[in-house]
């Protein structure tokens, strides 16, 4: 009888232990990640603040905490007007950037790709608030708002006055934006043990893998920038290039009417056929008609763009200036 009571008591303790363990587990945040190495590092996604928190014990300073706030909590829109000076044969690329309502971070840095040299670069006013330059010699120009009351473009605001000049003709390129982080990130360092640093790297990488989209450090948008005209000009290759630009412009909603896009497509294919047949004059006439249609259906700039137009200034720049260049090169 004593043995039976003893066994029942052990069973009861075991069940109580399971209940306590389950309650403890349920109270612990489900998104926390800890290392098996004596729980050296705790890391988790804080959904309230939309950032990542890391905690660990330091022998000199006690419990430490750092926050990783990815610079992607911005809502950028970029618009462009392209102006062409026939006398100097140069293009001016003029950008306007908006951080839409609802963005948590200000837009801190703006990067614009360029595939050929640029010059006469300008920043918005006041100039002392902006730092600009070539980014790591990677054919990318950047502006960073480092001065003023707020570091960056706040939610709901628009800033214009970003520009540069180039001999390069318009093409589709990337623009990249980063937000101003709300917290300074500083992980374990020299005052922490090798084990803590290794454990931190593991937890950080595990969270990065689990929350890939949230860990992205920037926002990418397509825009227009300069590229070098082909040195070895081949008309058929170049008109195929224009056709691809047109397709991309339509997919990016820079051409907003399918019938207009199909009309452009028909004219470009017809011009290509005439070039193949060595009928250059007819090809030029078709392409000139296309330029007239682009002017009639499109907006050259955002400052004067009626709602009944079907080409944004991005589509206008791509088609008008590239088709015009093709006409000039046809012999």
Q: List low-pLDDT spans.
A: 1-30, 34-38
Note the quaternary state here.
Answer: single chain
Main-sheet strand order equals 9-10-7-12-13
Coarse morphology: elongated
Characterize the main sheet: 5 strands, antiparallel
User: Structural class of the helix and strand makeup?
Assistant: alpha+beta
Strand fraction: 25-35%
Mean pLDDT: 90
CATH class of the largest domain: Mainly Beta
The secondary-structure element order is HEEEEEEEEEEEEHHEHHHH
CATH architecture of the largest domain: Sandwich
The CATH superfamily of the largest domain turns out to be: Mu homology domain, subdomain B
- Annotation, overall tally of beta strands: 13
Tell me what you see in this structure:
The N and C termini lie far apart (111 Å). Residues 1-30 and 34-38 have low confidence and may be disordered. Strands 9-10-7-12-13 form a five-stranded antiparallel beta sheet. A four-stranded antiparallel beta sheet has the order 1-2-3-4, with helices on one face. The protein has a four-stranded antiparallel beta sheet with strand order 5-6-11-8. It has three domains: 1-30; 31-228, Immunoglobulin-like, CATH 2.60.40; 231-329, no CATH class. The radius of gyration is 29 Å and the shape is elongated. Helix 6 packs antiparallel against helix 7. It is α+β, with helices and mostly antiparallel strands. It has helices spanning 2-27, 194-210, 212-215, 235-251, 258-276, 280-297, 313-329, and strands spanning 33-34, 41-46, 51-58, 62-68, 76-85, 90-99, 107-113, 119-122, 130-134, 140-145, 157-166, 169-179, 219-227.
């Amino acid at each position: 009888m004593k043995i039976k009571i003893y066994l029942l008591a052990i069973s009861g303790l075991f069940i109580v232990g399971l209940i306590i363990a389950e309650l403890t587990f349920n109270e612990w945040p489900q998104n926390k990640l800890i290392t098996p190495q004596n729980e050296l590092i705790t890391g988790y996604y804080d959904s309230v603040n939309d950032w990542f928190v890391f905690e660990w014990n330091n022998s000199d300073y006690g419990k430490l905490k750092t926050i990783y706030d990815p610079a992607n909590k911005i809502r950028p829109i970029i618009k462009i007007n392209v102006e062409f000076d026939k006398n100097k044969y140069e293009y001016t690329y003029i950008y306007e950037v908006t951080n839409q309502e609802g963005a948590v971070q200000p837009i801190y840095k703006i990067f614009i790709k360029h595939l050929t040299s640029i010059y006469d670069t300008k920043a918005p006013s006041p100039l002392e608030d902006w730092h600009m330059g070539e980014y790591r010699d990677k054919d990318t120009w950047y502006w960073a708002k480092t001065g003023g009351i707020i570091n960056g473009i706040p939610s709901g605001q628009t800033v214009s006055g970003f520009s540069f000049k180039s001999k390069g003709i318009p093409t589709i390129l990337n623009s990249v934006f980063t937000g101003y982080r709300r917290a300074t990130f500083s992980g374990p360092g020299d005052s922490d043990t090798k084990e803590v640093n290794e454990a931190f790297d593991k937890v950080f990488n595990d969270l990065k893998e689990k929350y890939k989209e949230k860990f992205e450090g920037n926002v990418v948008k397509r825009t227009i920038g300069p590229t070098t005209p082909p040195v070895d000009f081949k008309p058929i290759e170049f008109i195929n290039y224009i056709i691809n630009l047109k397709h991309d412009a339509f997919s990016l909603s820079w051409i907003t009417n399918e019938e207009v896009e199909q009309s452009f497509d028909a004219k470009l294919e017809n011009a290509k056929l005439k070039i193949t047949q060595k009928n250059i004059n007819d090809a030029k006439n078709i392409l000139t008609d296309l330029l007239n249609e682009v002017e009639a259906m499109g907006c050259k700039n955002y400052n004067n763009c009626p709602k009944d137009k079907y080409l944004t200034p991005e589509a206008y720049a791509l088609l008008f200036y590239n088709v015009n260049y093709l006409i000039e090169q046809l012999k």
